Amino acid sequence: MPKNILYPAAVKGSKKRRQKQMKTEFFNPPYQNQHHIPQTSGSHPDKKQKQNKYFTASRYTVKGFFALLFCNRETGITSDTSKPVAGKRFTVIRTNRNTLQTSTREQTGYEMGKRYATILAATIIAAAAYAQDGNSSFEFLDLPVSSHINSLGGNNISIIEEDVSVVHYNPALLGPEMDKIIDLNYMYYMGNTNSAGATFAMAAGNRAAWSAGIQYVGYGSITEADANGVITGNFNAKDMVISGGYTHDMGRRWRGGVQAKFIYSSYAEYSSLALAVDIGLNYYNPDKDFSASLVFRNLGGQLKRFSETYDKLPWDIQLGISKTMRSVPIRWSVTFQHLNKWSLPYSKPVTDEFSGGEVLETKDNFFSNFFRHAIFGVEYIPNKNFYVALGYNYKTHTDMLRYGRNFFSGFTFGTGVQVKMVGIGVSVANRHVHGTMFMFNLSMRLNEFGRR
Hints:
This protein is of the alpha+beta class. It has 7 helices and 18 strands.
């Protein structure tokens, strides 16, 4: 570029006056149908014309691009997305599958960059905290919390619903549309194992929200014995997690969220403390009712050990998609979990051809590994207040081969209904002959109380 090109507005005048003039002429260029190039110092007829030509040409130059990017441009929205307004950013708040709501919160390019940098830093910090050796512990973190998610195979990170319990699976599914919703859950697992918890969400402006939750798992009274097998009495075992999450829209269709979890476990005289972080990202296209999510779960480590060695958390990388069909009110979902480890072998009992007895055969081929990563779910949703869901988890089905599984091992079923401010959901799963699991959720919209 020639050295004698002048940028009058970038040299003279106060900063405030320059930014005001830059905004005025950027949104209302004097020559909208022509491509102007800055003139040399000897060819400008007058100062005013030089400034106008600079602002028109500035969007095609590197210097002009950064000058316009960092001036305090106003951002806005319109309800008609087919007719965008020049110089304005459109943001979408998701309220349900077919309704869009807009936001008037000001958002500059600098703020967007800062938010992306914050999420990236959180990912790096959480991954660094995870870097430790040892065996996996705190497996109760993978127990279901939502009856809706449990009915879709036990895990789903991509369905778009005003259900605050789904934030435990993907913090990016939280949003301001869940303002003042509280959810209570209870699960009867197997034996004397019971789980209960509560989750509450509140909007933080028009484009962000936060949540808080607590979950308790009790295993009842367990017989205690020494190393020689002599019974010495009974002891109690329990797990508990306290969580807090935050989410923010990162554009028209993108939303990111982070959830921190403080974990406590106590088994007889042994106890442990841990800190974990979930990081989620969700893309949602309301026109096609398509959703895709990526989640990093349980990144972190122990603060206090059970014994002399550190145990790893059951960290996981998950990817999921959900899509509603056009002609029928059916939504299907596919969730891939344990992507941090491809090989997931399992043992299958077979009859030995020589002895005639039963031996275990290890399965570890491409197709078995692929399907053991996948969870399939389908829902019938005639309206926004009712659903019936069915899910299948091939990993659960194959894991139960050695433990007396039945035909329904791996299948889950559930239904839910919303009546005004109260929502109820139930789900059932039969993992093996003596292991039926039942889950119940009750949600309430506190901001609806007192309204007619």
